[in-house]
Fold this sequence. Notes:
This protein is an alpha+beta fold. The chain has helices spanning about 10-25, 60-80, 100-110, 120-130, 150-160, 200-205, 280-290, 290-300, 300-315, 315-325, 375-390, and strands spanning about 1-5, 30, 50, 85, 90-95, 120, 135-140, 145, 165, 170-175, 180, 185-195, 215-225, 235-240, 250-255, 260-265, 265-270, 335-345, 355-360, 365-370.
Amino acid sequence: MQDVIIVGGGIVGLATALQLQKSNPSLKILLIEKESMLARHQTGNNSGVIHSGIYYKPGSLKATNCIRGYHLLIDFCREQNIPFDLCGKIIVATEEKEKPLLNTLYERGNQNGLAGLKRLKQAELREYEPYVNGLEGIFVPQTGIVDYKVVAEKYGEVLRANGASIHLNEKVNSIRESEVITDKGNYSARLVINCAGLYSDKVATMTVLNLNVKIIPFRGEYYKLKKEKEYLVKNLIYPVPDPNFPFLGVHFTRMAKGGVEAGPNAVLAFRREGYKKSDISLSELTESLLWPGFQKVAKKYWRTGLGEMYRSFSKTAFTKALQKLIPEIQEGDLVEGGAGVRAQACDREGGLVDDFMILEAKNAINVCNAPSPAATSSLAIGETVAALAMKRL
């Protein structure tokens, strides 16, 4: 009999186990992951940015968990000697209509307690990024870079060292009351915590009746700058995001592992773990397309969606989007990079769920929406979920 079974070995599941262990070191914890390694999906394929919390509505779960998680993450990296770099980033308005949105971001950052934010005039932008094009900007000193796969693996190492069990290559098929049934065995637990990422809705339906959200997978495709063009980007350069769309727009990121990524776009993935255009699951694609909420989203954002899809198939169009920030970038400067898939919860009414979403059931706690900045926020989300769990244990 386990005290807690956690489904999902991404950074949120691992951080939750870590915070439970911290709350009560004697707890019997089992983490079950269907892949042969930890952090195989969202955690292992993201851009490695340590987010500051500037984008998120003050008081929201994203804002509070991002800022708390930021400090916990930095402390953990220092304790465990994990390399990271708080290099800062600039957010750039390239059109007049973006200036009021930039003001809103600056105000949000101050409300969220970010010290040292700096408004930049046109000439000042070039002091931070010599090749950038923009009218105004904000310098965010808190932003940094880290390899989240390394962080997640270290979470796993600490967990095992303190007595937790981690089962890889094992898939959860069903949950009945306090029993978790996998393709390799049955386990009893006082509480089940679902951190299954791209399949979190599927696992949630095992404990929640009439779930009102579905995970819609969005693939983000990156290019990399050729080595000889990396000088064009010193650190991180972001556009002003569209407030109606939960993605940050194509940007430039210096990577913790070296190199500079450009992107991502955001296109509907044709399967939940579809990292290539050719990755298709007819059943999963049909499920996304038939979900009433997604149909409403598609109707509302069809222009944006078409633009993202066009950029996915046209390197010229992708380059043009990047040139808004760095005009010198040419198509030939870009080589194909990787891709990640974001698990974006969409409710039946057509809302792309903007905040983290945690749903409680009789014998379970379900983390149903934890997209970016979940990696930065992981230890804070883990703390939040652990606090809910400890009330039950």
